[in-house]
Amino acid sequence: MNLPDSDTQQNTSNEDKEAINREQKLIRVAVLGASGYSGSELVGLLHNNSHFKVVAAYASAQATPQPLHAIAPAIAANCDLVVHPWQESELDRLQDLDAVFFALPHETSAELAAQFIARGIKVFDLSGAFRFQSADAFRNAYGFEHPHPELFEQAQYALMEWTQLDPRGMLFAIPGCYPTAATLALKPACESALLVPDARPVITAISGVSGAGRGANLRTSFCEVSLQAYGVLNHRHTPEIAKNLHREVVFTPVLGPYKRGILATCVAELQAGVTEEQVKDIYQQAYQHTPLVQVRETPVAVDHVAHTPMCLLNVHVKAGTLVVVSVLDNLLKGAAAQAMQAANVVFGKPETAGLRGRF
Ligand SMILES: NC(=O)C1=CN([C@@H]2O[C@H](COP(=O)(O)OP(=O)(O)OC[C@H]3O[C@@H](n4cnc5c(N)ncnc54)[C@H](OP(=O)(O)O)[C@@H]3O)[C@@H](O)[C@H]2O)C=CC1
Ligand SMILES: CC(=O)N[C@@H](CCC(=O)OP(=O)(O)O)C(=O)O
């Protein structure tokens, strides 16, 4: 809507004034990477969140301008917002933003964050650029030198069920999709000392192909995908999961022949004498007040969470072994919905604003 200037404001009706007030209170955001899988989901969530207003959305510099409903009709059938090619000169146009979301390649997020922060704009980054606190750990996981390691100190890791975010912060690192599934599954056991001290949890996680992003390549083309482990013993999410759980893990990702969702099977050795009842009590307590994470008594499946912001857990104990099966949508709780959850909390809005109706 167009805001009337101050001269004409005296003549506006109470209704108009209320509308102007509402508009002025909206949190003004931009999304970079809006033509990608997680970015388009995020614009869809923001568009349906009455506290936020997406003032600009961008694809890469090579893109041609297109409305979001043409890029992602299933998500944004009613969204006329035009996605423009990103140029650095846009930064000058975006002065009055409250926040920016990056759904970008790690390298691009790593480069761009400092420029927004310097302008007083909060950054919510869905990439892996700010999930580690040391340049060595980052290089080992991502294979390149971070251009702005000085920002690590201020980056807050936004695994929402386990982190108290400081809303005064400027940089929020949204966890990876596999690390979210695995950490939510194992954190209650690790935090409560249920596991043997040297337990090394084994996580095998199957992901749909959207986890690899929208760019076409041979590995993810329809006829090439069957069911295949990859990155065995060296996937970049292994150190992120280990950091979250404060212990080494064995993590094996598997690419599956479906579009979206992760099913992670997480196995760990329990301390002698720990009972099934104790374990289940601890999981119920850990997630009794978490609207987007629920512990279920019945089997959980990817179809139960696809297109929702939920993570569902199913806990089993037998003969000293813990098995937790965890499912989530890699593009939602594994990316866009978790970013929405974090932004809601940082701006003092209800945690699930914009996410309701999708679970
Ligand atoms: N897919 C997933 O399940 C998850 C992804 N992530 C992370 O989120 C980020 C985005 O992932 P995803 O949505 O899958 O990626 P996509 O490949 O689907 O989309 C990438 C987006 O970034 C844009 N882009 C690429 N290069 C540049 C550049 N140099 N400058 C500006 N824009 C650029 C693309 O524009 P264009 O369309 O013009 O190329 C596109 O909009 C990645 O860091 C990924 O690791 C995190 C958790 C889960
Ligand atoms: C199926 C598939 O290829 N998945 C991606 C994970 C995507 C993701 O979550 O990326 P970040 O968390 O690092 O941002 C991969 O294994 O590289």
Keywords:
single chain, 359 residues, alpha/beta, Rossmann fold, Dihydrodipicolinate Reductase, domain 2, 2 domains, 8-stranded mixed sheet, 7-stranded mixed sheet, 12 helices, 15 strands, disordered N terminus, binds NADPH dihydro-nicotinamide-adenine-dinucleotide phosphate, binds N-acetyl-L-glutamyl 5-phosphate
Describe this structure in words.
The protein is an alpha/beta fold and about 350 residues long. It folds into two domains: about 10-175 and about 335-359, Rossmann fold (3-Layer(aba) Sandwich); about 175-330, Dihydrodipicolinate Reductase, domain 2 (2-Layer Sandwich). Helix content is about 30%, strand content about 20%. The protein is built from twelve helices and 15 strands. The protein has helices at about 5-10, 15-25, 35-45, 70, 90-95, 105-120, 135-140, 175-190, 235-245, 275-285, 300-305, 330-345; strands at about 25-30, 50-60, 65, 80-85, 100, 120-125, 155, 170-175, 200-205, 230, 250-255, 260-270, 295, 310-320, 320-330. The protein has an eight-stranded mixed sheet, sandwiched between helices. Strand 5 (about 100), helix 6 (about 105-120) and strand 6 (about 120-125) form a beta-alpha-beta unit. Helix 3 (about 35-45) packs across helix 12 (about 330-345) and helix 8 (about 175-190) packs parallel to helix 9. The chain is globular, with a radius of gyration of 21 Å. The two termini are about 30 Å apart. Residues about 1-10 have low confidence and may be disordered. The site of N-acetyl-L-glutamyl 5-phosphate has 9 residues, from strand 11. It is found in: Cytoplasm. This is N-acetyl-gamma-glutamyl-phosphate reductase. Its EC number is 1.2.1.38.
